[in-house]
Structures are given as C-alpha cells and as structure tokens.
Specification:
By secondary structure, this protein is α+β, with helices and mostly antiparallel strands. The protein has helices at about 15-25, 30-40, 65-75, 80-95, 95-100, 150-160, 165-175, 185-195, 200-205, 220-235, 240, 245-255, 260-265, 295-305, 310-325, 330-335, 425-440, and strands at about 5-10, 55-60, 105-110, 125, 180, 220, 270, 275-280, 280-285, 350-360, 365-370, 380, 385, 400-405, 410-420, 450-460, 470-475, 480-485. The chain has one domain. The protein is about 40% helix and about 20% strand. The strands form 4 sheets. It has a 7-stranded antiparallel β-sheet. α4 packs parallel to α7 (about 165-175). The relative contact order is 0.18.
Length: about 475
C-alpha cells in the first residue's frame, strides 16, 4: 500500500529562555514592547508570513495552491476560519471545475472555547448552490444561484479574525497575474474539454491555443479578476443586490441559465446544527440536511463501526440512506435507523472537492464544495468570468461529505475528515475519520475508489499536546497537506 502524503509535527525539547520569560509577563503590550526592544521592529507584521512563531496548525486540500494559501494565512496569524476562507477563494481561481464562485458548498466550523460564538460545539455553515425560483424564463442549461461568496463571507464573519477583503485580494491577484495549472485541474479539463470548449468564453480561458491547458501551464482569468476587484471594493452584497447582480442577471439569459434579481437577493447562506453522534469519549458532527452527504457519511461511519473493514458494505449503506432520504417523508433519525435499506443502481453523483484546516488554538473547519457537475453548466456568465454551476433542479445533488470530532468535556478538537469522489465520497470521509480516531494515523487504510480524502488528527487533543497532531491528503489524488512550524 502506498504511504499517504503526510506531515507530522513533533514538539522540540529545547525552549528559548527569553520566550519563557516573555510568557510570564502580565500583558501583551509589555511582551510586544520587550520583544521590540530586544529584536527590533523588523520582524513580520500581523498578516504576513512568519508572524506566528512555533506551531501553526495544518491544512489539507485537493489542490496544492489552495493548501499553500491556507498555510500562509496561519503563518500570518489568521485562525482556521481565515485559512478556510483563503482556501475556498483560492479554489475559485485554481479549481473552478469544482469550486467556482458560481457554486457553493457546506462547512463544519468548530471553536473550542466555551465562551466562543457557539459555545464550544461545531456548527454547520450551509451555502449550497440552489435552484432558481420556478416560473422564470426557460433555458437550455439551467444555472444554480451562486452561493460561494456569500457562504465564505458568513464563515468569515462568524468565525474569522481577519478582513474578508484580504482573502478576495489574494484570489484576485492569482486570477489577474496567472497561476500554474495543477494536476487536479488539468485532469478535469481532459475529461470535459470538448463540451466545455463549445462555450467561447470557456475556450478562451481554458484552451487559449485550441487545446486544454496542461499541468504547469499558466491560467490567467482577467475578467474574473475584475469581478473579484469589484467584490473587494463594493462588498459581497454587490454580487447579489448591486451592479454585479444586474450584470449577472443579464449574463444568465445569454448562456441559457436564467436567474432573476429575486433569486440572487433572497438566496442566503445559513447556520444549522450538525448531525451529532457519540463515539467512545468523543462527539462527532456531520453535515446536516438539506445536503444528504452528512447522512450518508454518518450511515457509512455506523456501518464501519459495526463491521470493521467492510467498506463496500458501508458504501452501500451510505447510498441506500441517501436514496431513501431523497424520496422524502422520513426524518434524519428514522432514515439512519433503517438497517434493512438496500441501494438500487447508484446515482451518478456530481463532482465535488474538499479541504480542512485547524490552527494552534484548536479551531477547525472542514468543507465540501461543488459546482453540481464538473465545470457546472460549462458556460461562463459573460462579462464576469464566473462559471455557472448546474441547477440542482437539472442535476442530482452531490454527496457533500465532512465530519469533525471533538471532546465536549474538555472542549478540544480531535479530528476532521472531508472527501470527494462521487458515490464513494461519504464512505471515504467516514473511513478517514474513523481511522484517525482509532489509530491517529490518517489514511493508514485507504478508502474505496474513487474517493479522495483529506484528514486532520490530534491524538491528545488541541488545545493540548500539538506534538500528536498530523495531517494527510489522499496519495491517489493531487492534493497537498501542510502544517507544522
């Protein structure tokens, strides 16, 4: 078996005496003053890489540049939510096949402090790409209402510590000056290049020379950069109720995916209590409906606990629960208790992507994002650079799979896993989380194909012994795991 891409942080034995002395001083201002008098004022400022000394935390994502963006934020003093927003905004530029501004997703967010905004219990931030209201003009390729920007803004507002505009600025820079095409994006382009290039705007961006961009080529998106610049200056609301919204409505008519001004104005992200269960001494949160990926992940987790190693059976259980939930008329508790369910021929679930991050205080975020189809509708809203996601009224929703474990007694982070991989996404996230909880060796057992899993784990909890924290991305994919000092 291949060894997963994993980095492990171990605490060193030596400590500088000067920092031990500084830690005993009464106030931050005194510490900062003394540090300045000793070391000068030439060190990195807050927000700059290298500002944080010592343990940073960790990030795992399916696309390398997005993982780097998350780690840069942690190094600059941002928390897990700041890093998650940075990863999401970067993915909108570097992996628009699965996470463009036209799409959306869902995240689990955790802050360990009892006095935190949610009392030390995980919360779900839901921003699924939704169907436009019925009764509007018909189109040949229905588009979803874009939810990515609003969702990441809500995550930032509720859990972040740095301005949302700084994350937009970084994504704008990548779009304007170009970014190297990753293996992940190159693979997606090869799959759908022919239908994608039927859209002249998409062909200009992703196949400027008539052939799809390859790994290592430069992807430049000037129109998207201009849209991001407008969001940075005018705020996220401009995309939903301002000038950008008006442009988006008109552009949607041109690509056969009509949206109305009311669709944009009234489609809001939300906060929900996750699905919760106990496991040993810990508690686990899964994404709640309206996405059924959390139900599928919990069903797979339950099956793996009952029948260790039976990943095929666990996947069948997850799909059966998903299919029964989509039929309607059943509660989450009842559908998870239906052990006699059988899966019919598996639905072709759309593509997605996932990532997770945690910081040195034990804050953590795990997310799954989607365009409801690879490259969404395959068409770009003219004049915006934004790829349109497919409406869930025209495509079956994906299994958005993520789980997060914590200890409720000591209010500390234990592990998180998020996964993509169509019908195997849920069992992938469940297997990744369970293995981390049982062994503290993320991805020592690789989940079923075609799942691709990202895992974080702290065997002795965080806050606590950060020397037990590890991070891993699926070695069969094209992602990256980063963290440490």
């Amino acid at each position: 078996m291949k060894t997963p891409h994993m980095q492990v942080k171990r605490t060193g034995r030596r400590r500088h005496v000067i920092f031990a002395i500084l830690a005993l001083l009464p106030g931050c201002s005194t510490v900062d003053s003394l540090k300045s008098s000793i070391f000068g004022n030439n060190g990195p400022a807050p927000g700059q890489q290298g500002y944080v000394e010592g343990f940073l935390g960790g990030v795992v994502a399916d696309e390398p540049r997005a993982a780097v963006a998350g780690r840069e934020v942690l190094s600059g003093g941002g928390n897990a939510a700041d890093a998650a927003v940075a990863i999401g905004m970067t993915l909108a530029v570097t992996l628009p096949s699965r996470a463009a501004l036209g799409g959306g997703g869902a995240c689990l967010a955790y802050s360990p402090a009892r006095q935190s905004i949610n009392g030390g219990t995980p919360e779900a931030v839901m921003f699924l790409p939704t169907a436009p209201s019925p009764g509007g003009p018909a189109g040949d390729r229905p588009a979803a209402v874009p939810m990515m920007a609003r969702g990441l803004f809500l995550l930032n507002a509720r859990y972040g510590s740095q301005p949302f505009e700084t994350r937009v600025a970084k994504a704008e820079e990548l779009a304007r000056f170009g970014v190297m095409v990753s293996k992940a994006l190159a693979q997606d382009l090869r799959v759908v290049a022919r239908p994608l290039f039927a859209d002249p705007q998409a062909r200009t961006i992703f196949g400027p020379n008539g052939a799809p961009l390859s790994e290592g080529d430069t992807l430049v998106q000037p129109t998207l950069a201009a849209t991001l610049s407008q969001i940075r200056f005018a705020g996220v609301g401009d995309l939903y109720v301002g000038g950008l919204a008006q442009r988006l409505v008109q552009a949607s008519l041109q690509i056969g995916g009509p949206l109305s001004a009311d669709d944009l104005r009234t489609s809001l992200p939300g906060l929900k209590q996750p699905l919760l269960r106990n496991y040993r001494n810990d508690r686990i949160a899964f994404l709640p409906p309206p996405t059924d990926g959390g139900l599928a992940t919990e069903a797979a987790f339950d099956a793996l606990v009952a029948r260790p190693g039976d990943m095929v059976g666990a996947m069948q259980s997850s799909i059966a629960v998903s299919q029964r939930w989509r039929e309607g008329g059943v509660s989450t508790e009842d559908v998870l208790a239906m052990h006699n369910l059988s899966a019919s021929i598996a639905t072709e679930y759309p593509a997605s992507t996932s990532f997770a991050t945690f910081d040195r205080q034990g804050n953590a975020v795990a997310c799954a994002l989607t365009m409801n189809n690879l490259f969404g509708t395959g068409r770009i809203f003219p004049g915006t650079g934004i790829l349109a996601a497919s409406s869930p009224a025209a495509m079956p929703p994906p299994l958005l799979a993520a789980g997060l474990a914590w200890n409720d007694n000591i209010k500390a982070f234990r592990a998180a896993a998020a996964a993509s991989g169509q019908s195997a996404a849920a069992v992938g996230a469940a297997q990744g989380l369970l293995t981390a909880l049982q062994t503290n060796r993320p991805l020592s057992v690789l989940p079923l194909e075609p799942s691709r899993v990202n895992v974080l784990s702290c065997g002795e909890y965080l806050p606590g012994n950060n020397g037990t924290c590890v991070w891993a991305t699926d070695p069969r994919g094209s992602g990256l795991a980063l963290g440490g000092n």
